[in-house]
Design brief:
The complex is a heterodimer of chains A (about 110) and B (about 120). Chain A is mainly β. Chain A is built from no helices and twelve strands. In chain A, strands 2, 5, 6, 10, 11 and 12 form a six-stranded mixed sheet that branches. Chain A has a four-stranded antiparallel sheet with strand order 3-9-8-7, with no helix packed on it. In chain A, strands 1-4 form a two-stranded antiparallel sheet. The termini of chain A are far apart. In chain B, about 0% of the residues lie in helices and about 50% in strands. Chain B has strands at about 5, 10-15, 20-25, 30-35, 45-50, 55, 65-70, 75-80, 85-95, 105, 110-115. Classes of the chains: A mainly beta (about 110), B mainly beta (about 120).
Chain lengths: ~110, ~120
């Protein structure tokens, strides 16, 4: 069974600084996908970035990058140049073999201060 | 292009009642998934529908059931409501054949409170 662990309940960062949100995962599958979603107070989950287990390059999407370390089973999200609008819950998730079920972690609340 | 829309946004029910939540998937999307998010937790997978057929189910009892319609909209039905069913219910849609890399587009959810 897949499991996602996010050990940081909350993180604080100043505007314009970079921040790393931690995520470790556990799976016996060889093929899997790793995702990060942002959940603002409105409740909607917003897709940020995806990394496939066979991708050799770390994924990047604008200010978001995913630091993928397969041997350590970690998939940390790096947000560069934080903005006030980045304040939200961030969830790491993994896709399971066979269909698009996502297994989510418990999330990290990020607060960006001016 | 319209996104995923869910209705109602909030709902209050009492124990033992039944509830139906609705979801309109994003235009062109043929797969719908439902997730339950309890307070302070990550979403948990309930089930997925692909082209009107159930295509996977999480660890939820049979009183959680669903439907997908020909226009790919979907319903989540919960019978015999329990207090622990209080949660945010999220619907997500995607296009193409379900796979590991397909990203999901989520609605804003229905907040269900069971008293």
């Amino acid at each position: 069974a897949q499991k996602i662990t996010q050990t940081q309940p909350g993180m604080f960062v100043q505007e314009k600084e970079a921040v790393t949100l931690d995520c470790t995962y556990d799976t016996s599958d060889q093929s899997y996908g790793l995702f990060w979603y942002k959940q603002p107070s409105s409740g909607e989950m917003i897709f940020l970035i995806y990394q496939g287990s066979y991708d050799e390059q770390n994924a990047t999407e604008g200010r978001y990058s995913l630091n993928f370390q397969k041997a350590r089973k970690s998939a940390n999200l790096v947000i560069s140049a934080s903005q006030l609008g980045d304040s939200a819950m961030y969830f790491c998730a993994m896709s399971a073999t066979g269909f698009q079920k996502l297994v989510f972690g418990t999330g990290t609340r990020l607060l960006v201060s001016p | 292009e319209t996104g995923v829309t869910q209705s109602p946004t909030h709902l209050i029910k009492t124990r033992g009642q039944q509830v139906t939540l609705r979801c309109s998937s994003q235009s062109g999307h043929n797969t719908v998934s439902w997730y339950q998010q309890a307070l302070g937790q990550g979403p948990q997978f309930i089930f997925q529908y692909y082209r009107e057929e159930e295509n996977g189910r999480g660890n939820f009892p049979p009183r959680f059931s669903g439907l997908q319609f020909p226009n790919y909209s979907s319903e989540l039905n919960v019978n015999a409501l329990e207090l622990d069913d209080s949660a945010l219910y999220l619907c997500a849609s995607s296009s193409g054949t379900p796979g590991l890399s397909e990203k999901l587009f989520f609605g804003s959810g229905t907040q269900l409170s069971v008293l």
